[in-house]
From TrEMBL:
One of its GO terms (molecular function) is GTPase activator activity. One of its GO terms (cellular component) is perinuclear region of cytoplasm. SMART domains: LRR_RI (SM00368). This is Uncharacterized protein. One of its GO terms (biological process) is nucleocytoplasmic transport.
Length: 138
């Protein structure tokens, strides 16, 4: 699928949400998505107020894309409750930190983030877990 396919999905999410057909779950795992594709999803989330679960496992995401996503997730208008980012080798301690910040800022609305990625250190995992409890899972 790649980033262009993800762009089409992101545009569809925006269009469907604004036309009275809300999409609550979006599963886009293992589609070779990079930060470019994540950027399209991030833009869609700025105006989408229906999406509850976003799964983006086994892609080619990096900290740069996740930092931008985390900024949007801090917004009180975001309806996202679950975010699955497992098996993205480009994610490091930086992603764990910014996502923990997003969980803390959302005061209970963001219920679970799955972030089992090989390049996140044990110390970053411990800090995020101490801050967010069971909401951050590694």
């Amino acid at each position: 699928m790649g980033d262009l396919g993800v762009k089409a999905i992101a545009e569809h999410v925006l269009g469907r949400a604004s036309n009275g057909h809300p999409l609550e779950t979006l599963l886009i795992s293992g589609v070779n998505m990079t930060d470019e594709g994540l950027g399209y999803i991030t833009e869609a989330l700025k105006t989408n107020n229906k999406l509850r679960l976003l799964e983006m496992r086994k892609n080619k995401l990096t900290d740069e894309g996740v930092v931008a996503l985390a900024k949007v997730l801090k917004d009180d208008n975001s309806t996202l409750e679950s975010l699955y980012l497992n098996a993205n080798p480009g994610l490091t301690d930086i992603s764990a930190e910014v996502l923990a910040d997003a969980v803390a800022a959302r005061k209970g609305k963001l219920k679970v983030i799955l972030l089992d990625c090989e390049n996140i250190s044990f110390s970053a995992r411990a800090r995020a877990t101490a801050r967010c409890g069971k909401k951050m899972r590694f």
